[in-house]
């Protein structure tokens, strides 16, 4: 820049000196200097106009005019800058094109939502799956287009660890799973995928289990009936052993079938439809009596502690089944003379039902899988106990339907505590406020 200015002043000086010299010869130095400077200025202005035209020309591919000298150097520099800018732009456009092509090839719908909840961008799958129109919907709030109240609740909750599955806004027979991820400064990425096939498969599986269990019931009843009749009659000793074993196994199969049916029914609907206050205190007393009967030969020590202030709302049959599963497990797995305590209490977090035993306990690696169907810690111990392998799966499903959750604390050779937690909304208040203890 410094040398360019130098050059400029040198040329200006040289022109002035030559004009003055010619002026002295013609005896009019003022005039020749003025004319020379005017011509020089006009030439410079022309170049400047060419540059200005080029700058204001919107076509960024337009070539710069040819020029020599100082202006030529400037034009060359600008030309190089323009070429570099063009190639950078081509590169970026290529990256964006590739991103758009690959995102439209994705089977999942992707929507970028800005911090004001407006939809900024989406791929082609989103238009197809959710019916978004590129021309009219861009910049509109996402909740104007996905209006299902369950989606709005999920969106506003702000915690997106689990996805949500809802009927498609375009075709209600399709199911769409939505998952939101936060990024940037309050922006969100919404991924939606068609899970109709998965849901149909899951439904087929549930129907199959329910139908198969139902169909197995009748033949089992007939077999059990005949076995009972045979055993009631005088039978030879060698046959009696076999018939008793058959009767025991038929009973086990009946339990299995009824647990499978119950589980299918629980899976069929998401949440309990009608919640009524259930008499938790009398249910727990009944369960305690049944538990004592079940562990008749084990002489275990039972303790029941109940907060009388609150009852629980929900489906009595389901809750009875869940609570008795936990108590009967404690009886079956705890050794002779062991201690079993049952507690129902309410605190600021909600209602809690806990069964604690000082039985064999469970190794921590098994705990996360314990509520899976047919998951057993120790096959020999479990079959001897006569369980179906579905007890804890039933407990988990019942709790999910009641908005609750199951926690398991257990230490090998020390004992276990299975605790059901219910939200405050599921509690109903009682007038008398005693704490009842039964041992
Ligand atoms: P099962 O019919 O086999 O009892 P569950 O689903 O009720 O099936 O229990 C799953 C497994 O958890 C059992 O096989 C058993 O190993 C373990 N378990 C459940 N309750 C207890 C308990 N109170 N103490 C020790 N182990 C338990």
What does this structure look like?
The chain has 439 residues and is α+β, with helices and mostly antiparallel strands. The chain has four domains: 2-100, no CATH class; 107-194, Beta-Lactamase, CATH 3.30.450.20; 196-268, Orthogonal Bundle (Helix Hairpins); 274-438, Histidine kinase-like ATPase, C-terminal domain (Heat Shock Protein 90, 2-Layer Sandwich). Helix content is 53%, strand content 19%. It is built from 13 helices and 14 strands. The chain has a six-stranded mixed β-sheet, with helices on one face. A five-stranded antiparallel β-sheet has the order 2-1-5-4-3, sandwiched between helices. Strands 6-8-13 form a three-stranded antiparallel β-sheet. The longest helix is centred in the N-terminal third of the chain and has 37 residues, at 69-105. The chain is rod-shaped and about 155 Å long. It binds adenosine-5'-diphosphate.
DSSP strand count: 14
Distance between the termini: 99 Å
Helix content: 40-55%
Overall pLDDT confidence: 88
Would you tell me the structural class of the helices and strands?
alpha+beta
Name the CATH architecture of the largest domain.
Answer: 2-Layer Sandwich
Major sheet size, sense and barrel closure: 6 strands, mixed
In oligomeric terms, what are we looking at?
Answer: single chain
Bound molecules: adenosine-5'-diphosphate
Radius of gyration using CA atoms only: 42 Å
User: What's the CATH H-level superfamily name of the largest domain?
Assistant: Histidine kinase-like ATPase, C-terminal domain
């Amino acid at each position: 820049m410094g040398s360019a200015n130098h050059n400029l002043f040198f040329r200006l000086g040289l022109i002035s000196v030559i004009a003055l010299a010619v002026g002295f010869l013609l005896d009019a130095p003022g005039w020749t200097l003025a004319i020379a400077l005017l011509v020089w200025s006009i030439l410079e202005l022309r170049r400047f106009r060419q540059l200005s035209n080029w700058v204001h020309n919107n076509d960024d591919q337009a070539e710069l005019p040819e020029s020599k000298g100082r202006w030529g150097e400037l034009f060359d520099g600008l030309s190089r800058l323009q070429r570099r800018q063009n190639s950078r732009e081509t590169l970026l456009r290529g990256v964006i094109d590739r991103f758009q092509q690959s995102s439209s090839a994705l089977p999942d719908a992707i929507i970028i939502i800005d911090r004001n909840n407006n939809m900024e961008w989406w791929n082609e799958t989103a238009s197809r799956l959710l019916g978004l129109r590129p021309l009219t919907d861009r910049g509109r709030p996402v909740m104007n287009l996905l209006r299902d109240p369950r989606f709005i609740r999920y969106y506003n909750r702000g915690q997106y660890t689990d996805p949500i599955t809802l009927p498609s806004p375009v075709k209600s027979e399709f199911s769409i799973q939505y998952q939101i991820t936060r990024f940037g400064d309050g922006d969100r990425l919404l991924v939606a995928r068609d899970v109709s096939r998965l849901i149909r498969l899951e439904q087929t599986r549930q129907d199959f289990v329910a139908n198969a269990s139902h169909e197995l019931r009748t033949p089992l009843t007939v077999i059990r009936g005949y076995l009972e009749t045979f055993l009631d009659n005088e039978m030879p000793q060698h046959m009696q052993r076999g018939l008793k074993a058959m009767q025991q196994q038929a009973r086990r199969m009946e339990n299995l079938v009824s647990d499978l049916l119950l589980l299918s029914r629980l899976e069929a609907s998401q949440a309990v439809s009608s919640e009524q206050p259930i008499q938790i205190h009398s249910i727990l007393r009944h369960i305690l009596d049944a538990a004592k009967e079940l562990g008749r030969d084990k002489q275990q020590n039972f303790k029941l502690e109940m907060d009388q202030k609150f009852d629980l709302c929900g489906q009595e049959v389901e809750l009875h089944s869940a609570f008795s599963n936990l108590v009967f497990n404690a009886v079956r797995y705890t050794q002779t003379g062991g201690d079993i305590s049952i507690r129902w209490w309410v605190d600021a977090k909600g209602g809690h039902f806990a069964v604690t035993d000082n039985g064999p306990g469970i190794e921590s690696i098994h705990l996360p899988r314990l509520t899976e169907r047919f998951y057993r810690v120790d096959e020999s111990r479990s079959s001897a106990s006569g369980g179906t392998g579905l007890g804890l799966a039933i407990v988990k499903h019942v709790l999910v339907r009641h908005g609750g959750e199951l926690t398991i604390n257990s230490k090998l050779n020390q004992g276990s505590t299975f605790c059901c937690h219910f939200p405050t909304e599921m509690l109903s208040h009682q007038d008398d406020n005693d704490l009842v203890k039964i041992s």
